[in-house]
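Narrative progress, year one. The postdoctoral researcher (J.K.) led the effort to move from monomer predictions toward full complexes, under supervision of the PI. The following entry was the first complex the group processed end to end, covering 573 residues in total.
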Amino acid sequence: MRVTKDLVAASATPIVLGILAEGESYGYAILRRISDLSGGELDWTEGFLYPLLHRLERLGHVEASWQTVTGERRRKYYRITKQGLAELAEQRHQWTTVVEALQQIWPQTLPLEGTA
Amino acid sequence: MTVTNGPDELESQFAQWREYVRRRPELIASDADELEDHLRDSVDELTALGLRPDEAFLIAVKRMGGLDDLSREFAREHSERLWKQLMFLGDSGDTATKATLRRDLIAMLVCAAGAALSIKVPALFGQHFDDEGTFYETNVALFTLPWLAGFLAWRRRAGLRLCAVLVALFALGVAGANFYPVADDSQSVNLIGSHLPIALWFVVGLAYVSDEVRSSRRRMDFIRFSGEWFVYLVLIALGGGVLIVFLTSTFDAIGLGADDFITYWLVPCGGMAAVVVAGWLVEAKQGVIENIAPVLTRLFTPLFAVVLLAFLVATGLTHGGIDVERENLVMFDLLLAIVLGLLLYSISARNPLAPRGTFDVLQLVLVVSALVIDALVLLTMTGRIAEYGTTPNNTAALGENIVLLANLAWAAWLLFSFVRRRAGFPAIERWQTTYLPVFAVWMWVVVLVLPPVFNFR
């Protein structure tokens, strides 16, 4: 199964903000986390992730800084801001509404393709 | 690691990849750092799985997706980067370039201040703008062009010998402008006033090409520099005009006259400084912003070609020939100079390897019509000289027309051969760069030789 482009685009911001809400992180680790969370189903490219991170930074949802953690390379770490947390809460609210609505109209009997 | 030179080889691969990334205008240095870090993580993970470093590198790069796609995505987010910005102190880029930019900026400020103050120095000795006499008319270029040349020579780290030559030439200019016993209403004084700035501009050119005087490429760069410099100067002058309008009206509104300040300080000092600032701008923005002079050339070459052709047709129909008034002849000289300018800039902007196109034919039309007009002007001028005898003015004009005629004739021939696929484009380029000293020499002759020859008439 592949998640469609539209859905990936719509869910990208809350996913990244959600991961950063767990603690600051950097690009490569964020990609790995997304892959783990979705069991490999969400396969983001670098060309998708980095511009997104930069946009979130521009909007003020995240802050970035170059840091050197002992024993590692100098890296650009991203940290969620207060504003980002508010945005995450807002997006979460919207997603919950959508998911609840979907759950009500989906008949329980509808078979779920691809999972068995 | 199974391969002995694995780490070194890997590092050089990273370096290559980085250089490749940095060529993309959409990706700035910190993006390259970030992506490189990502790539390294990816390689580390793959080598941990047992792959050889070079294999890991290949796979990691492949996974990263094509740089085209990556750049496109970055461009979508950072569209402002495609508007190439002139960073005065470069908020991107490495510390070395930043330091260079800062040093340049300081040197420019010193030179611009020097130029601005220079024009006020004569006032200390009782020489004012509104005084009688032609002191400022003949000396104006000497207040600012040495500073511009100094800035360029400093930037090129010109050798002592070149610096000595520059100083000597400017001293020659000072001598030409001030030591001849020319009357204020003589033709000689006007010739010095109009030709000395151009003669000195070639000295600036010498500072520009610095130790590569013989290099055709560097001379072509100087032609580009001149065109861009002129465009910037005009832009600065326009901005200055707007500033003056606001200064005048806002101070008028509170009952203070700013006229004296504008006339005696803002215009002269600003004008002198602007010459240096424009030169610095051209240097600072090299490769950052597309050159504008060639674009203007492309726009105006067809228009001028049409005007010249129309003029020739009209002359042919009326059989009138050219009116022998002096003002008209000066106008034609200017017209021919503009044609030459258009030709030079389109040459400087043209990719020498590009195939022949309509534009080259248009240029040929322009040059040939200019050539015919030049011949007509020369004919009229000879008649005038036969009638009135030689004067400093018509000798200077005659010389200029002959110099131009020779240039245009050979340029037309080369363009013709080029359009007919008989010769390459570089020949045209070489001809124009080789010819530059001829212009310079004639300008100096007008300034230094003609006045004594005509007894300072």
